[in-house]
Amino acid sequence: MAKKLIKAGFTNVKVLKGGWKAWLDGKYPIEAK
């Protein structure tokens, strides 16, 4: 899972609001920092 996100360009897990499950459900947007 993490490797797929890294390949997609998401190297910082902390930018995910609501945690993994909420992000995967598409209920929270990606917060760019």
Backbone CA Rg? 9 Å
Low-confidence stretches: none
Q: Give the rounded overall mean pLDDT.
A: 61
* Largest sheet descriptor: none
Strand content: under 5%
The proportion of residues forming helix, as a percent range, comes to 25-40%
Number of domains: 1
**Number of helical runs?**
2
Order of helices and strands: HH
Give the overall shape: globular
Structural class by SSE content: mainly alpha
- Strand runs, count: 0
What does this structure look like?
- The structure is a single chain.
- This protein has 33 residues and is mostly helical.
- The protein has one domain (1-33).
- 39% of the residues lie in helices and 0% in strands.
- It has two helices and no strands.
- It is globular.
Task: Report a brief summary of the structure.
Helix content is 39%, strand content 0%. It is mainly α and 33 residues long.
Key terms:
single chain; 33 residues; mainly alpha; 2 helices; globular
Secondary structure layout plus pairing:
Elements: H1 2-8, H2 19-24
